[in-house]
Each structure stands twice: as structure tokens, then as C-alpha cells.
Specification:
By secondary structure, the chain is α/β, with parallel strands linked by helices. It contains eleven helices and nine strands. Helix 2 crosses helix 11 (284-302) and helix 5 crosses helix 11 (284-302).
């Protein structure tokens, strides 16, 4: 019941059997989360440090809740106000945390590759909660899990990833994960927000959002990450919303069922209108719920304690 890897650093390191094992385990934990008492002793006596060098709300809370549901002991570390601001190195910071006998580290960092660097220097299992513009593996897993839940399979399904592809770690992890599971991928958005190297990943490219929606069965819409842009890559947010934003009337005009997803946070009225985000075609809240079950599965399977999960 364990994974083929010691760490979850990125989707690239996982094989299809690992992903399917995570999904099966998440199925069981999702049943646990429907109970009146939403807690199991699976990681009792396991200590997990949530080490976030970058601001986060949804991912951090989702991991914390997953850990509590597994009965793990948790330590929450934030770089702001810590010794990091005084010049302490990444390795020193985490080694000090490990001195407290921590078994696993969930880490988010603004530098791409930071989890790989850390995995070479410490013994504890590392879970990448997002590194720079590189990967966000648990988000990709919960996105794929959510699609599978809606469509039954990912094999042969057409998935459009729309928005700021250049600055999104979600986009890259989704591409790796969905392709491993047999899906076809198209990325869509302004030419300035789609990196040239993305063609090397074997995806289709469109600069016309309407055409991408007509092609796809699922649209995973990404936010504009202004905080990562060193220079303006489009005129205004109003212009972006006009040419690349998705609204309910656009979805109604497709005359077909379309699943709308978003990893959050949503810039309402920019990449996605409120009437589209809150429509019956949206599974955004299901993604949030599935995120806890998938992260429970990842932590459990990496813990070395995985034998069986009793959902009954």
C-alpha cells in the first residue's frame, strides 16, 4: 500500500500505479469524511511540519485539515516573522524543525526546485505544496481525481487548461498527471502567457478561448498571477476579461455539457465570471472537498504506515 517514491516532489516522479493507488485510497478517505466523526487514527504518533515560505490559504488549510483527520501531530511554520527573515538558510531552518523529531515536511517555496534540494539534505519525507512556477503535485492529483469522479475515466478525455500558463505551477503538474492517465490536453490564453516550450510537452495550443471550449469536455481555468509578472503581458484586466474570460452566456452557447474547474483563488470577473463559477457546470467546491481526501491519501501512503484503510 505504499508508493514507489519516498517523497512527493512532482508528478514526474510518480508512475500510473502510484496515481491509481492515491485515488483508491482517497476514495476510502472520502467515505471517512462523510461520517459524523470525520477522523481516523491512521497517523497517530506521526508529526508533520507544514513549512510555508510563501503565502497560502487554501493549500495550507487543506493540508492541515487532512493531517488532523488522520490524527497526526502538526507544527505550522511561516517564513514571515521567523529566523528566515534574519538570513537563516533553508536547510538550517528545516533541520531545526527536524530536531523536534518531525517525520514529514509539507513545504511551499517561491523558488523552483526547493523541495528537490531539501530532499537531498534531510531524511524526512517531503511533500511539495508548490515550488515557484514549477509544480504543485497535490493540486494536479485532486484535479485529476475530480475529473475522474465526474467522467469515470480520464483516458481519451479532452481537457483545456485556460489562462496564465506561463506562471502557473498548476498547469505543468496537470499536464504531467493528465497525460499519464491518457487524457488529451490543450492550453489556451494570450500568446504572451503561453510559453514557447510548452509545445515540447505534447499539448495542443490555442489563442482562442471559444475554440478551446468547443474542443474540450473539461475546462480548468487558471487565474492571472500578477504577482509573478515582472512586466505587463496584456493591456488591462478588463481587456483580458473581454477576450479571454469565460462567462455563463459563453458556456450556454456551446450547446453541450462542459465541466468548469478552478484551483483558486478566483479573480471573479476576470478569467471567470461569477455566473459561470457558481453555475451547475462548475465543480470548484467539489475540488476543495476532494483536496482533503487526496492529501490524506498522499500523507498516509508516504508515511510508511499504510496497510489498509477501513472506510466502513
Amino acid at each position: 500500500m505504499s508508493l514507489s517514491v519516498k517523497h512527493l516532489l512532482g508528478i514526474k516522479e510518480l508512475n500510473v500505479q502510484d496515481i491509481e493507488k492515491i485515488f483508491r485510497t482517497a476514495d476510502n478517505f472520502k467515505q471517512v469524511l462523510q461520517r459524523p466523526i470525520k477522523k481516523v487514527p491512521s497517523l497517530r504518533d506521526t508529526t508533520i511540519a507544514n513549512v510555508f515560505f510563501e503565502n497560502s490559504t487554501r493549500t495550507r488549510i487543506s493540508f492541515e485539515l487532512a493531517e488532523k483527520r488522520l490524527s497526526a501531530d502538526t507544527i505550522n511554520f511561516s517564513a514571515s516573522g521567523s529566523s528566515v527573515s534574519k538570513g537563516e538558510t533553508l536547510v538550517d531552518t528545516v533541520n531545526n524543525i527536524l530536531a523536534m523529531k518531525v517525520d514529514m515536511v509539507v513545504m511551499r517555496h517561491s523558488a523552483s526546485g526547493a523541495p528537490w534540494f531539501l530532499a537531498r539534505h534531510i531524511d524526512a519525507s517531503i511533500v511539495n505544496a508548490g515550488d515557484g512556477t514549477n509544480e504543485h503535485p497535490t493540486q494536479a492529483l485532486l484535479d485529476a481525481y475530480s475529473i475522474r469522479e465526474q467522467l469515470g475515466t480520464l483516458s481519451g478525455k479532452r481537457i483545456a487548461i485556460i489562462g496564465d500558463i506561463m506562471h502557473s505551477r498548476v498547469a505543468l503538474s496537470n499536464i504531467f498527471c493528465l497525460q499519464k492517465l491518457g487524457a488529451e490536453i490543450m492550453v489556451a490564453g494570450p500568446p504572451t502567457l503561453i510559453p514557447k516550450h510548452i509545445r515540447d510537452q505534447g499539448v495542443k495550443i490555442s489563442y482562442d478561448v471559444r475554440k478551446a471550449l468547443e474542443w474540450a469536455e473539461v475546462a480548468n481555468v487558471l487565474r492571472i498571477q500578477l504577482e509573478r509578472q515582472s512586466k505587463p503581458l496584456f493591456s488591462t484586466l478588463r481587456e483580458y476579461a473581454l477576450y479571454y474570460g469565460i462567462n455563463k452566456s459563453m458556456l450556454d452557447g456551446l450547446q453541450k455539457e462542459m465541466i468548469i474547474m478552478h484551483p483558486g483563488p478566483i479573480n471573479r470577473g476576470v478569467e471567470l465570471s461569477s455566473d459561470a463559477a457558481d453555475s451547475g457546470q462548475s465543480i470548484i467546491l467539489e475540488q476543495v472537498q476532494n483536496g482533503v481526501a487526496v492529501r490524506m491519501a498522499v500523507l498516509y501512503l508516504l508515511s510508511g504506515k499504510a496497510e489498509s484503510v477501513e472506510a466502513g
